């Protein structure tokens, strides 16, 4: 049950203290879900009511099969234009478009479910903490710029964040601000943020939204403001009539693209918010759950969906603790569709913008970026790259750029890892970095080195060069060597390219009368080395005499002080520094 229906498992272990927060968050979400669903449906070239269906059905399905406790699924701004581009050329009428959009959603769901079965959810492991921090900061900027014009009562267009920002400034300079909308938006924002700082137990978002609806209804401002508009009536029903095999083939390409975007966006959000809540999510479960939600909504007059980067933080800030919150939101939409479809005629867009802006502000994390610069500038740079990528070129592209840079940084670190000579420090067990312990004693005739990385194609040559350079440096300093001990514990793998370098190094050392010894090499790595079947004159190149359980054990053997105990002594320890 935990694997296939995690929602039911959460319900069985539901903490009653969560109920208030979930109810408040569900009510608050309803105010956002309705206009967002209707608006994104229009962007996708579909009737507004399909946006409500694409909101209700995924939330219900995900509440049962989704692993994340507060993730909110629904129509998405990054998917709607792709959906429109895919279906509009194939159909001219609403009925045909609804059917094609449903078919496209089903195909997206199938791609995601197949990906989950193939265990492709591991891609979420590539989203490190710096990337998540940069991603959220980028999302916050994108959301803030998209909502600020609505808060001020006008609209702008732009193909990039820079264009949007420039057009917002122009709009303000040209006097396009609607004073009534701005007043409602700013008051709503002050109420939300003020109550959050002063008394978190009071649902500021709910008070702001309800207050704005009451004010517009009482004073009759609905004709003077941009409002969400009345909800269309109806209930989701199957609407796949008329689709053909040719349609299914034509939609495969868009389906794969949408699936990639949906999972990339969802995986980052789910992992990020799970980390903020102190929980974890399974990437394969997440992929399958989003796939199931897409299949279900496709069958019931909806269209492709993903996690919402604006509604999810609203749910978190409103107090959501489980999937009951979005489930309540879905059920309330159904209630409003039939009982009070006209209530959203009084919901001002400026108040909704204030809700989204307050949630976006909570995503901004400058302190963590500063801390990253203080600790590791490379990780800080990755975070900045993710931020700029998401903000300037799009969510998916920005994440891919950051992941690519992460790989480059990893390869760079493994290519030039920390490496040092070890010596014996009086009063300390084990063998330690001589650069950090200048008083360390070097063992006569022995050179002890450590290379802190797996040996692979990118660093095999550097490893060989480093060992040779240390030998030459020691000989130039008047030392003589009969043994080089490689403290091998940090080496977790040796690939075929590195093995060739290792063989050349061994030949070089042998020609100088020096024996290469591997100390503390892990059994799986030694077994991997054995599988290469390296030989010299018909005999194993690296036989048992070339391996030592510990550096200290080999030093004792060399110095004639053979160990008679099984515990660590002054020359041995499980840890080296």
The biggest beta sheet is recorded as: 6 strands, mixed
Q: Which regions are unreliable across 5 or more consecutive residues at pLDDT < 50? A: 562-575
Helix content: 55-70%
Name the assembly state.
Answer: single chain
Number of DSSP helices?
A: 22
| Cα radius of gyration in angstroms | 31 Å
Strand content: 5-15%
Number of strands: 10
Using the alpha-carbon principal axes, give the shape: elongated
The end-to-end span amounts to 46 Å
Q: What would the average pLDDT be, to the nearest integer? A: 86
| Spatial order of the strands forming the largest sheet | 4-3-5-6-7-10
Q: What structural category arises from helix and sheet content?
A: alpha/beta
Describe the overall structure.
This protein has 577 residues and is of the alpha/beta class. 59% of the residues lie in helices and 7% in strands. It is built from 22 helices and 10 strands. The protein has helices spanning 6-12, 19-43, 48-65, 80-87, 94-117, 129-152, 161-173, 179-198, 204-219, 245-250, 252-277, 283-299, 311-318, 324-339, 349-363, 366-375, 377-393, 395-415, 460-476, 496-511, 523-531, 551-559; strands spanning 73-74, 306-307, 419-424, 431-433, 445-451, 481-487, 515-519, 535-536, 539-540, 547-548. A 6-stranded mixed beta sheet has the order 4-3-5-6-7-10. Strands 1-2 form a two-stranded antiparallel sheet. Helix 8 crosses helix 15.
Provide tags for this entry:
two-stranded antiparallel ribbon; alpha/beta; disordered C terminus; 577 residues; 22 helices; six-stranded mixed beta sheet
